[in-house]
Amino acid sequence: MAAKIAILAGDGIGPEIVSEAVKVLECLQQSYALDIELEQAVIGGAAYDESGNPLPQKTLDLCKAADAILLGAVGGPQYEALERDLRPEKGLLGLRAELELFSNLRPALLYPQLVNASSLKPEIVSGLDIMIVRELTGGIYFGQPRGIRTLENGERQGYNTLVYAEHEIERIARSAFDVAMKRSKKVCSVDKANVLEVSELWREVMIRVSKEYPQIQLSHMYVDNASMQLVKWPKQFDVIVTNNLFGDILSDTAAMLTGSIGMLPSASLDKNGKGMYEPIHGSAPDIAGTNTANPLATILSVAMMLRYSLNQPELAVCVEQAVSAVLDQGIRTQDIADGGSSVSTRKMGEAVVSALQLKSK
Ligand code: IPM
Ligand code: MG
With 0-12 CB in 10 A as exposed, 13-18 as middle and 19+ as buried, what is 245? Predict the structure, then answer.
């Protein structure tokens, strides 16, 4: 039976980059006999504009029925004044929560062709290959109570809650250790256990679960130090596991080490490996509609989808090799051009499709 893939383009550059990734999926369908069925739906600001709801029931139902989801990006300045529950981000967070996509894999891999696009020295970043495993459905993003209240003296006070139950820590620990077993078996758990009780429990549970994985070498680091070490000597890391908020921040840092956030894909998985795949960059409203965004992070998200949800590891490698071949040809979008000449979003997508077609012959 054909695997069902929900396509959610979203806002800003979302539609432009997703179109190119869809061309890659269609190429795999035609030239590699990949048995898939694509169905589009709206999310985020686009969905709000259409129906007043950033996560319409129809979209949620489609995503629940799908085997995998490909998402572009959500958000834009025109939605910032809306009440929180109607904002585009709520659509994305709602989907993560409703589908229980608790394990967010964010690889930061430096393509050797782009070593000069990084703001760090080549010797610091060349060969970089880090996997950040970010907890995605708990912590301060979802903790209750939250809000803005008025105190007795009339002053307003904003508050959020950083909470983790043991089962939430256990499952993200297992997820990280499973990933590490297929890599160098080294995991660094990042927390703030010197200040936060929730981190103290996080660390205790990480250590407990690691006993089930005798081959795993587990270390711990405070988040402030981790952010420094990431730019000082990033190659000391292999797998990093951390909470929702720390993972949000550290994954942007790690992305930039590779030269451009426009290169990095992500997978958000539930306990059965069903997943949502999205570039880690946002909707980039400043360049939306200009046909200049880099579609490679979204195309590489398709590769992750092939690997983690569609059980097609060989095809995942084909897509990754096609991207690498295109970089070898010197084809660059603006963000990775290092001041040199650049091509459009569409040209970049077409170049990847051509490289894929060539490989299928
Ligand atoms: C990300 C984004 C989201 C997050 C926003 C858009 C809600 O920054 O996926 O990293 O904070 O998780
Ligand atoms: Mg983020």
Answer: middle
Q: What is the pLDDT of residues 244-301, one digit of tens each?
A: 999 999 999 999 899 888 999 999 999 998 999 999 999 999 999 999 999 999 999 9
Say which CATH number the domain at 51 has: 3.40.718.10
Please list the active-site residues: 141, 192, 224, 248, 252
Q: Residues lining ligand 1, judged by CB closer than 6 Å?
A: 75, 89, 92-93, 248, 280, 282
Q: Total domain count for the chain?
A: 2
190 Cα distance to chain centroid: 18
Residue linked to tokens 């998200």 = 301
Q: In this structure, are 133 and 234 located in the same domain? A: yes
Tokens of 245: 């908020």
CA distances to 47, 84, 193 from 284, in Å: 18, 20, 35
d(CA 104, CA 92): 13
- Which atom from ligand 1 is nearest to the alpha carbon of 252? 10
DSSP conformational letter for 126: T
Q: Which ligand is the nearest neighbour of the Cα of 141?
A: 1
CA dist., res. 45 & res. 41, Å (int)? 12
Question: Structural domain of residue 165, as residue ranges?
Answer: 129-257
> What's the one-letter identity of residue 113?
Q
> pLDDT by residue (tens digit) across 337-353?
988 999 999 999 999 99
